[in-house]
Amino acid sequence: MVPYRVLLPKRIWRECSTKAEIVQAVKEYMQRYPHYIVKGVKNGFALCERRDEGE
């Protein structure tokens, strides 16, 4: 797997005040990237692995 970084929108950090809210907002945002699996969040980026359709 190749690691990818997806820049998360600043609104997530503005609108969310708890870790649970951030996790939920990231999950909702990442639905736009169906082949990306989130492994973590660091410095405003979602750290992901990309899965091809055949995997």
If helices are DSSP runs of H or I spanning 4 or more residues, what is the number of helices? 2
Structural class: alpha+beta
Counting DSSP E segments of at least 2 residues, the number of strands comes to: 3
First CA to last CA: what distance? Answer: 11 Å
Q: Low-confidence segments, ≥5 residues, pLDDT <50?
A: none
Query: What is the 3D form?
Result: elongated
Largest sheet properties: 3 strands, antiparallel
- Roughly what fraction of the amino acids lie in strands? 25-35%
Major sheet strand order: 1-3-2
**Rg calculated over all Cα atoms:** 12 Å
Helix fraction by DSSP (H/I, runs of at least 4): 25-40%
Mean pLDDT: 92
What oligomeric state is this?
single chain
Succession of helices and strands: EHHEE
Annotate the secondary structure layout:
Blueprint: E1 3-7, H1 10-15, H2 19-30, E2 36-42, E3 45-50
Antiparallel strand pairs: 1-3, 2-3
Brief characterization of the structure:
By secondary structure, the chain is α+β, with helices and mostly antiparallel strands. 33% of the residues lie in helices and 33% in strands.
